[in-house]
Design brief:
The structure is a homotetramer. With about 350 residues, the first copy, chain A, is of the alpha+beta class. The first copy, chain A, has two domains: about 15-65 and about 180-345, 3-hydroxy-3-methylglutaryl-coenzyme A Reductase, Chain A, domain 2, CATH 3.90.770.10; about 65-160, Hydroxymethylglutaryl-CoA reductase, class I/II, NAD/NADP-binding domain (Alpha-Beta Plaits), CATH 3.30.70. Chain A is about 45% helix and about 25% strand. The first copy, chain A, is built from twelve helices and nine strands. Chain A has helices at about 40-55, 80-90, 95-105, 135-150, 175-180, 190-200, 205-220, 230-240, 250, 285-295, 305-330, 335-350, and strands at about 10-25, 30-35, 60-75, 110-115, 120-130, 155-160, 180-190, 255-260, 265-275. In chain A, helix 1 (about 40-55) runs antiparallel to helix 6. In chain A, about 65% of the residues are buried. At the C-D interface, strand 1, strand 2, helix 1, strand 3 and helix 4 of C face strand 1, strand 2, helix 1, strand 3 and helix 4 of D.
C-alpha cells in the first residue's frame, strides 16, 4: 500500500450574482458575489434577492463581534486543584496576552473562558487573527499557552490541544453565545411594491412564513440557535469560491432570520453570529480565489483585519439575498409548482435529476 | 443591472487516499477514496487511518436505516380541525403511498410523522429515493401529496412546501431520531501493536481522549447529537469529490464516536445517522465525479439504491479513518508540536498560513 | 451513622383558581384548579387568565398522543451482531407485545424504537399505562422484555435497564419527537375587547411579544424545543397539588406558545408534547390529592386512562391561562413597575423578599 | 366567578438522610439533608450514597461561579442603531453598576452580555444577590436599568422586562455557558472495597455505565448540556424541603457526571453549573424550612451570601450521593429485579403503584 501521489482537481461550477448594494457603517459599496455550486438554481434565486434589495436602497450590514477560538483540555487531580488553576489563570490573563503577542505577528489573545467538569479543565482562548480565518494561528498560540500553563502547574496533565469547547466545524451553542468568527447582522427594508414587483409576494406573507417555518418549524425540529431556510446553500457557494474552509458552514449556518411588517414595509434581517472567514492563508492563493476576492474589494491595502471584515459583511448580505428570495418563492405555491413542472419535463426528456 | 452570464469553475485540490479495507455484510472490498480539500494535511492523516485499519483486518460497516424526507406545513382554523386532519391522514397512509408510487419511478413513501403546534400542521413525509440523494424527488412527491391533501381538506391553508421539520442542511435532532439520509455505523478493532506502530498511541489513550474531548467536551459546548473531532473535514472532502450537495455535511457531521478498550484491543466506531448521498442526479455528471464514483465501484449495475448505499458505507469508513488518525495525533503532544514547528518555519520563510 | 427514622412533612401553600372553561372534543366542562406554590402571585395571575378565557367562550384542548417510555441499553460484540438484533426485534414486535400484555393488567407495549451507536443497542419501548403516569409500570415491563431478549440473544450483555434514551426527568429532543407522556394542545380565541378588558393589552402586543421573547429569545438562549415564558411555574403548582412526580416538569416545560392575530382577534395556543401525569399510583393516596383530583372530576368511573387524559387536558388549559396572563402583563411596562413598587414597599417595611 | 379565598396546604412526605461528609475548601462539615418527595425509595437510596462517601473520607465540593441574571429586551429601528446602543452600553458598565448599587442593598451588577438579532436588543444583566436566590431582586434592578437605558436612548422601544435570554425555569445552553445560579462541582474517591461493600459494585462498572448511559445515551436522546441519571429527583426533594422555587430544577438538572478509574479507585464527580438557591426570601419563612436550613447550618451569622453558598455545596453533595447510589444499583441487574419483585408483590396485595 503506497501513498497516492498524483494531485487532481475537483471543479465546481461558479457564477457571479449581483451586484449587491451594501450601505453599512463599515462599508458602502456595490459588490458582485461568486457562488460555486452544483445547485444551479441558486444563481438566479440569489440574484433575484440582490436585485430586490438593490432597488429597495440596499442592505445595511455590520459586524458586532470578531474573534477566533481554541480550547485546550487539561486534567488535574481534584476539583480543588482545578479551581486553584482557574483562579490563577484568570489573574494572569495579561501575562498570557503578552506571551501570545510575543510569539505571533497577528494573533492576539483577547479573552478566555474556563469550564470545569469534575477535575477536567477546559480553557477556551479567544483571539483576533487579522485577515486570516485563523485555525492554525489559534492552534499555534494555544500550544504556546499550553506549554506555559504546564510549566506553571506541573501537576496538571495534558489531555488535548483541542477539547471541543472551541468548537470547530461542529454544531454548538457556545460559538453563538461566547463568539467564534465574525458576528454579522444584515437587514433591509422593502416596500410593498418592491415585494410585489421583484419577489411576487407581500411583506405580510414573508413575515408569516418566517414565523411558522423558520422559527416554529426549527424549534420542533429540535434545532439549536438556528432559524433559517437555507443559509447553508449560499454560504457553501461563497466559501468554495473564496477559498474558505467550507466545513465551517456548520457553525455559520446556525443563524436567525428575523422579519416584521413596519408601516406596511417589510423589515427583513439575517443574523450570523459565527462567520469564520479570511482573505489570507490556506486556500487563498489560487488564481480564481484571488480574482474573486479582488473583485469584491477584499485584497486592498487596509488596516489588518479589514479585508476579512469586508468579506464577512458581503457574505452575510448575500445570505440575506438568497434567503429572502427562497422565502418569497415559498409563499407562492404556484411559483413552486411551475418550477417543479420544469423539473419533471426535464426528467421526462431523459435528463436525470435527483 | 444584468445577469452575469459567463460560467467559471472553482477548482479544489483533490487526492486519493487508501485503499480502505471494508468487511461489512453489505460490501467486502478495498477502496481508494478521493478527498477534495484546501486542507492538504487531511490527505496523509486520513491515509494513515486507512493504513492502520487495513493492517488491523479492515472496517466493519453497514447501513441501519435509509430514507429521505420533506415536511410540508399547513394551517387549520383550530386544534380540533388540525387533529381531525392528523387522524384522517394516518388512516390514509396507503392511499398516499399509492399516489407517490404512481407519480414517480423511484420515489416511494414509506412513513410519515405529524406534529401539531396550535393549529399549525407539520407533516414529515419519509421516502426512499433509489440511488439519488433525493432532494428534488421528495419535494416533487410532497407537492403531489400537498395537492391531494388540500383537495381532501379544502378548509386547510397552504403555508409552505417545506416547514423546516424536514430538515434540510440545518442542525436538528429530528434527523437523527426519525431518520434522514443513510444511518451508517462503521467500526474497527486494533491491537495494542497496531495502535503503537501505525498511530503512535495506545488503546487506552484513544479511549480516554474520546470520552474527555468528544463526549464531555461536546456536551459542555452545548452540542446536539454530536460527539466527534472532525467528521466534517472528511465529509466535505468526499462530498466535493463525488458531486454531492456539500451543504448536507451539516446533518452528516452530527455523528458520534464510541470507543472502548476490549481485552487490551481498541474498539473504535463512528456512527453517522444522517448521511445524505447519491450516485445519480445533480452534480454526478461531471467527468471527475463519474471517474471517482467508478473507482469506488459505485456506478455498477446493481439493484436500485445499492450504489448509493455502497457509497455511504465507503464514506463512513473514510470518516472513521480520518477521525481515528486525528485522535491518535492529539494523544501525542510531541507530534503536534513538531507539525506546529513546521508551520512556523514555513511562516518565517514567508509562506503565509492562517 | 444510622438511618433517620422520623417522617415529617413539607407544606406548600395551595389555592384553587378558576374555574377554567374547557370546550374540547374530549371534555367540555368548567373546572377549578389547585396550585401549590411558594410564589403566591401565581394565583391571581393564573386566575386572571382563567377569567379572560372563560369570558371569551372557553379553551379548546385535546390530546394528540399518549405513551410512556423506558429505554433499555444492551451491548453486542460488533455492529454486525447489533444490526441482526435490531432486525430480529423489529420482526418480533408482536411477541413482545403479547409478553407485556400477559404480565401486566394495564401496561401495553405499543411501539419500539432502536438506535445503535457502534455496538451499543438502545431500545426505547413505548407503552400505554392506563391512568397511571407509569414510571414503575414501564420499568417492570421493560425488565420482562430485557429478560426475554437476553434469553433470545445470549451473546448480548446487559448494560442498564435505563439507557437515557427514555428519557426521564431530563431535557431532550427525543421525548417531543417520539413522544413521552401526553401530547396536549390547548387554544383560545379572544376578541380585542376581551384582551383590553381582562388583560389590559391588545392581540397585536401579545403576538409580537411571543415572537420576540418566546420564539427568538428562546432560540438565542440555546433552548431546545422550548418557547414559552413560564410553563414551569403552573406545571409545578398543579403537579404538587395532584400528587404527580414534579421532577417531570423538566420534560413538561419543553412546550411552545404559538399566537397570531386573526381578524383582529387573538389566537393563542400552548402545545405541551410531554405531559407525564396520572390519577392513580405514587402520591395519589393523600387526602388533599384525592380531594383535588375529585374536584377536577378526575376520579370518576371511566374507561381506563380517561381520568388521566382529563387531568392532562385540564393542566394544559391552566398552563394556557398562566402563560397568557404573564405575557399580557409583560406587554405593559406600567403594570410591572407597579407590582415592583409593592414588592419594594414590603421590603422597606421589613418583609424580606428575594 | 369569584376568586377562591381559602388557602390550603399540599403536604409532601419528608425525611432526613445522611449525614453527608463534605470536605471542600469552603466548608468542612457533616450535614444531614432533608428530602421532600412522593418517591420514598429516594430516601434509602440517597442515604446509601451518603454512607458510602462518608466511609470513603467525604466529598470535596466547591463553588466555581455565582451570579443571577435577567435579560431585558428592547427594539431599535435598525441594526445601525442597535449596534450604537451596544457599544454605548458596554462603555457605561460602571455607571450601570453604580445605579444598581444605589438602588439596592444586596443586588450588585457584575457583568452584562448583549446579543443582537436584527434590530432586537437582548441585554443579559448578571448580578450577585447575597443570600437570596434573587429572582425578584434582579427583576427590580433590571427595571431600574431599563428605565435608565430608555431615558438615555429615547428612540429605543420597550419589548419586555424579560427576553428569555435570562433564562428562567427553561432549558437552555446560555445558563451553563454564561452562568446563572451557583456553579458547583462535587467529587469523591472510593476504593474498590468501598464500592463493593457499600454499593455492591466496582469502579469499572460505574465508569462504564456512566459513559454508555449518561454520556452516550443522553447525546442520542438529543439532550443539552445534560449527562446524568436523576439529578432532578434529589434536587426536587431538597428544593421543596428548603423553600426554594422548585421550578428552577429545570436549569439545575442540566448537569454532568464525570467518572474515571484512577489507580483502581473510583473517581466520581457531579458538575451542576446552574444551582439557583437561597436561604432568605420567598418560601424561607416557613417553620419547617427554617428548621431544615438551621440543621444544615445555613442560617448562621456569616458574610453576605455565605449561607446560600453553603446550601448550594450541600445540595450538590447530596446530588452526588443520590446519583452514585442509583448508578450503582443499575450496574447490578439482580438488585433491580429484586426491588421490582417487591413492587409486584405490593401490587398483588392490592397496594396500587404506578
Amino acid at each position: 500500500m503506497r501513498w497516492q501521489t498524483s494531485e487532481q482537481i475537483a471543479t465546481i461550477p461558479m457564477r457571479v450574482v449581483g451586484p449587491i448594494k451594501i450601505i453599512g457603517t463599515e462599508m458602502n459599496d456595490e459588490v458582485s458575489v461568486p457562488l460555486a455550486t452544483f445547485e444551479t438554481p441558486l444563481w438566479p434565486s440569489t440574484h433575484r434577492g440582490a436585485k430586490a434589495t438593490f432597488e429597495a436602497g440596499g442592505i445595511r450590514a455590520l459586524i458586532i463581534d470578531d474573534r477566533m477560538t481554541r480550547s485546550i483540555l487539561l486534567e488535574s487531580h481534584s476539583i480543588i486543584e482545578a479551581h486553584e488553576t482557574l483562579i490563577n489563570l484568570q489573574q494572569h490573563k495579561e501575562a498570557m496576552m503578552a506571551l501570545v503577542a510575543e510569539t505571533s505577528r497577528f494573533t492576539r489573545l483577547i479573552d478566555l473562558h474556563i469550564q470545569l467538569v469534575g477535575s477536567l479543565i477546559f480553557i477556551r482562548f479567544e483571539f483576533t487573527t487579522g485577515d486570516a480565518s485563523g485555525h492554525n494561528m489559534v492552534t499555534l498560540a494555544s500550544d504556546y499557552l499550553l506549554q506555559w500553563i504546564l510549566k506553571r502547574f506541573p501537576e496538571l496533565k495534558y489531555v488535548s490541544i483541542s477539547g471541543n469547547f472551541c468548537t470547530d466545524k461542529k454544531v454548538s451553542a457556545v460559538n453563538g453565545i461566547l463568539g467564534r468568527g465574525k458576528y454579522v447582522v444584515a437587514e433591509v427594508t422593502l416596500t410593498k411594491q418592491h415585494c410585489r414587483r421583484f419577489l411576487k409576494t407581500t411583506p405580510e406573507k414573508i413575515v408569516a412564513l418566517n414565523i411558522k417555518k423558520n422559527l416554529v418549524g426549527s424549534i420542533i425540529a429540535g434545532s439549536l440557535r438556528t432559524a433559517n431556510a437555507h443559509f447553508a446553500n449560499i454560504l457553501l457557494g461563497i466559501f468554495l469560491a473564496t477559498g474558505q474552509d467550507a466545513a465551517n458552514i456548520i457553525e455559520a449556518s446556525q443563524g436567525i432570520v428575523y422579519a416584521e411588517v413596519r408601516d406596511n414595509h417589510l423589515y427583513f434581517s439575517v443574523t450570523l453570529p459565527n462567520l469564520i472567514v479570511g482573505t489570507v492563508g490556506n486556500g487563498k492563493t489560487f488564481d480564481y480565489v484571488r480574482e474573486n476576492l479582488k473583485r469584491m474589494g477584499c485584497l486592498e491595502e487596509r488596516a489588518t483585519g479589514e479585508n476579512a471584515r469586508r468579506l464577512a459583511i458581503i457574505i452575510a448580505s448575500a445570505v440575506l439575498c438568497g434567503e429572502l428570495s427562497l422565502l418569497a418563492a415559498l409563499t407562492n405555491p404556484g411559483e413552486l409548482m411551475e418550477s417543479h413542472m420544469k423539473l419533471e419535463r426535464q426528467k421526462n426528456e431523459g435528463k436525470s435529476r435527483d
